[in-house]
Amino acid sequence: MIVTFSTNVFVAVTNVCRNACAYCGFRARSPDDAFIVRVEDVERLFAECRGVATEALFSAGERPECAVGFDFRRMIADVCGEECSLVEYTVILCEIAIKHGLLPHTNIGVLSEQELMRLKDVNASMGLMLETVADIDAHRNSPGKHPKERLRTIEHAGRLKIPFTTGILVGIGEEESDRIASLEAIAAIHRKFGHIQEVIIQPFAPKANTPFANRNPPMFEEVLRCVKWAREILPDDVAIQAPPNLISSAAELRALIDAGVSDLGGISAKTHDYINPEAPWPSEKNLRRMIEPHILRERLPIYPKFIRKCWFSDKIRHLIEKYADSDGFKLPQKKSQ
To answer: What is the pTM of this model?
Structure first.
């Protein structure tokens, strides 16, 4: 069986966030630990990563302009010289990525249709984790985690023909029936718009200094059952992804593949997982060894199906033509220079 992955550079744009999820260790707790990435640092990082990645993954806190206790517009003016929104700044960063030969993938929270349209032009794909359709205590202080808001963003992306990644979190206070309902909601949207590339089945991992610091992560058997449900519920053209840095062993990873996982997401040789910094990504060499006898194949952040459909803008056409083989996967013999 062929299992896919992408090579990326992970850029955390800002950790300022209007949400206060009980399990999140990424969000800034006060202005003293808040940051916004600077253009010069992004330029330097991308220059260093030429030839080792094809994807620039941009992630951020959601609606930082609405975060209580933070003057985000002043913060961003200090960084780029003028006040602008997170979306506007992310567009600037995406354009820098394209200049350096990287295909952007942006996941910065709930967005309006107009904001998605603005970002579509400079992205190969985008994403937003649904997490769960359940009303859970972990999201009590997180207005952006209302399921209807997140489902609306996923639907907007479908109307705009944006290749899209979503997924669920396992073990944040939801019931097993909620996991099934979440997968069914995603499947229904995909049947309507046909734009979902992959669905991530991501196990909760406790973070220090959070309300969920002492909560146990889900048992592997729970994650495995969820993958099996996902393969039964989701249309066949939607890939199921498991983050390899959150899986304990090669045996467990192979079991997930046997149950329906066909993608391992993005891995980076230069940057760490800012959301799960305690969990380093395995190298490509180790991934190949871990999944044997399955075959590992590199893809771009836009799946082959959507390359064939030309669901991308002229701004990134030259990079897709440079990197994609005749099947829409990553050309093994070519590296960005």
So the answer is: 0.96
